[in-house]
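Example 3.2
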Amino acid sequence: MWPQIQSINPSAELHVADRQEIRPDVTAHLEQVVELLHRHELVENLVQRQEGVRQQLVEDLVHRQHLTALQQLLDRLHSADIAYILEALPLDQRLVVWDLVKAERDGEILLEVSDAVRETLIAHMDEGELVAATGQLDTDEIADLAPDLPREVILDVFKSLSTEEREQLRAAMSYPEEAVGALMDFDMIEVRADVTLEVVLRYLRRLTQLPDHTDQLFVVDREERLQGLLPVNRLLVTDPDALVGDVMTRDFDSFHPEQDAHDAASAFDRYELVSAPVVDGQGRLVGRLTINAVVDYIREAKDSEILSAGGLQEEEDLFASVWKSVRNRWAWLAINLITAFIASRVIGIFENSIAQLVALAALMPIVAGIGGNSGNQTTTMIVRALALGQITRDSARKLLLKEISVSALNGLIWGGVVGLFAFLIYHSWQLGLVMTSAMALNLLLAAVMGVAIPLTMEKFGRDPAIGSSVMITAITDSGGFFIFLGLATLFLV
């Protein structure tokens, strides 16, 4: 009896993989591409200034010469390197390079580039090119690309798939981006428990290739229910006459399609997994999750977090139009402007105090700045702990008390330093005392808000990484000004 195996779609890119050039320093490739593009544009501009019947012939010859060299370079590069180069080029040069990429590699490169750059490349392609590029991909990869493709292209691709592939595509597209089902793939090897290892080995030898990251085979029954896992290393070193059921691992980690992808990524990191089965509610094997999909998910989540912390609504093409970049950035700038107005009005309340003691104007940015830095440190720690699932209701109280203690100690130490600084410059021990007190109180405010804001956002289902730093800075600025100027008004003016 032969083990069963799901169909594995051959990748056209494998035919060029042997001659692809992979180097750690991809910037060197970028410099070569930019240099070839520069030469091409320079000579083309010179030729266009000439007149005569031979102008077109010379122009065509030069055009082919430089573009051929550029195409030969691209043919040697890995798809990920080409994606990097496309992201680093202005739109006009990007499209020149994109037209030189071989058509059979379009789909793989579209998967590698950022969403913003992918949009520009897809807009440059006609429907036939998009259908051809998408048709080279596996069903899980098509699902990743589907949100960016025109509806007509998806329908054409869907018609070209087999019945099994259509069902797989429907399943992959039915899950939200944050679910395991959106990350799983369907290229996996299934075997029965009642066959020998020799039978499995003979079958594997008949295959042209194994699915990527195949570190184990999946043992299922006739109803596709997962029975166990057969590690490849155990398959190779065990007596070939042994049955799969006697050798397989029955204790294993599995995931459900609806499970949070973040939890799955944490499990891969914690247990050092390479691949893991994905099963439905009845225990049937529906797909597998691999380390490359998990790494991509973590990278994208991290990129999104960095962009959100910087006040960007979405990933932005470096060479996007001015208007598009403005729309992507205006929201948080508007929020920052509002918080700046609030801080200015707090200062305005104490205009008379500042007028009577000019030193206050020089010292108050110190209180606000240190408070903002301390608050952002606390927020960063809390957001990271929330992402790792390390905070419970009980531990949240302990964290708050701990951060208050840390801020109180820092406030006394650095507030004392700043107070001594104020005393030495302005020769006023009262001003030094106010400075020390204001610093300590603002750091305490920063600690409370640094813990409370991320936890509150998490409680209401919002991403605590988005906007926390902006809110902390606004509160510590306004609070720092109010505390410092208020104390100065009470004790100095």
